[in-house]
Amino acid sequence: MQGIAAPFTNLDLSLLSQPRGTDLTKRDPPQTFLYNELYIYNIKKNTWSKLDIPNPPPRRCAHQAVAVPQGGGQLWVFGGEFASPDGEQFYHYKDLWVLHLATKTWELVKSPGGPSGRSGHRMVLCKRQLMIFGGFHESARDYIYYNDVYAFNLDSFTWSKLSPSGTGPLPRSGCQMVPTIEGSVAVYGGYSKQRIKKDVDKGTVHTDMFLLKQEKADKWMWTRLSPSGVKPTPRTGFSVALGPNNRSVLFGGVYDEEEEESIEGDFFNDIYFYDLGKNRWFTGQLKGSKTQKKKRRRGDKNADVGASECSKEEDSNTAKPVEIIKEIVADDGTVMTIKQLIPASVESESEEEDSEEDEEDEGAAGPLVEPCPRSNTMMAIKQGILFIYGGMFEVGDRQFTLNDLYSLDLHKMKEWKVLVEMDPKTQEWLDESDSEDDAEGAEGGADEDEEDDESEEDTDEEDNQKKNIQTS
């Protein structure tokens, strides 16, 4: 095992807490080139390590990974995609892998009847089953979004396709799923697009929420949820993890405003909690130190507004979001402006529990420490501590990737801690010209123009393609 300062800048990988020990597992890959590397973050030592295990899955991104405690700890990986930097090569996987953490060995699990090749799907552990929902498949000719549900039994190693009753979610990818303690699964948000006419697509940002509940041994039912409280603003690219007290935690994301020839994104770094028992959303505002609270309450109307310095409006019904402008200087000296949209300060858990706290301490508050607004961050929760790693934001045609690491105690909700700062030497900007230059160095991949994922007859061809990708 090799100790390193921090992994390189990454997108569309997996970050999850191991079922045993105090490590976080990060699986795959950066944005330009695809990898099949495995990194471990030791929480106590605050160190990253690269774990080299023979015969891993082929390199990919936009897959799903779930950790389970059985067998000394296992990491299950399904699906994902290969794509070259220029997008000319594209391939969806439908393979299922398991990493046995006790023996440090990868195993390809071959079981018929599973989902078709896809990426952007979601997978969670629900009792003794891996539940998979949604995703999309894209080829050079067309694309399709899914709303099907599959279950993989961890005892029998068998797939089953569920046919829930009721009205379920429309086809989508990029949604978020969380299991409940009762054995149900909640689905929120997501994204899909449809063809309006030739070369014209219309995207939809979904904000609805559903519950998939088991009625009998083999009978499931969809129910649409109408949560109370303060719901997240519309967005994609947000991250969700199951936290303490039967609550899910949502962080960040982006809302794209599409114009005729450009897309401008509003990036977020806010937190929302969803109480699975009460079916209620609320904002996750930090309590901060007493000096920070004093600054918020006593600051004049013309004071600079920070991410946790928004004052609460007397009438929450008329409160409006606050727009924050931040500037980041790239390594080449380019100044990039990021627009952050902060929801109006409304009722939050920290205000409910801490509204009467005194302000005895004096002194000036230090600078606010928080992750910058971002989407597609990697997120895990271990023993009530929220960890977020990396992510990205865009400015014009340029994309900025991150490899910083933050933590937040969800029990205290006081302040973010910087575990690994962003290294300016690893900051990466990617624009269209960069993609064209890097395309010559793209590794792996298989042209999928002739693939039919709905057919089970292409198994041998897929295996050969995967071997070519893995050994290239």
Explain the overall architecture:
The protein has 472 residues and is mainly beta. It contains 4 helices and 31 strands. It has helices at residues 290-298, 349-354, 432-438, 459-471; strands at 2-4, 14-17, 23-27, 38-42, 47-51, 64-68, 74-83, 90-100, 105-109, 122-126, 129-133, 136-138, 143-145, 149-153, 158-162, 176-179, 185-197, 200-216, 219-225, 228-229, 239-243, 247-258, 263-275, 280-283, 322-329, 335-342, 378-382, 385-395, 398-409, 416-420, 428-430. The strands form 8 sheets. The protein has a 5-stranded antiparallel sheet, with no helix packed on it. Strands 20-24-23-22-21 form a 5-stranded mixed sheet, with no helix packed on it. β23 and β24 (280-283) form a beta hairpin. The longest helix is centred in the C-terminal third of the chain and has 13 residues, at 459-471. The radius of gyration is 22 Å and the shape is globular.
